[in-house]
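Attaching the record inline, Q. Sequence:
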Amino acid sequence: MALAQSKVTAQGQISVPAEIRRKLGVGPGSVLEWNEEDGKIVVRRSGRYTFEDVHRALFPEGPPRRRTLKELDEGKAQYIRERYARGRY
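Structure, as predicted:
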């Protein structure tokens, strides 16, 4: 049994039924993503950016190198010293 039905217009547009919009959490301006999985067409709400997009933006040269706990502690201490250092007059 179908969850809902839509009709395709002459311009190739469809209306997303209200119950589907509520289930997907979409509204005006939302982007839907169409995928084929195991011979079926699947419609999902599209995120603005994928995890891979965000990761590439944060780390353009590749993943950051692993650091030891000692290196992390030294980095925090240095940040605090620089951030809260009193100016010398």
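The mean pLDDT is 88. The CA atoms of residues 21 and 27 lie 7 Å apart.

More tomorrow.
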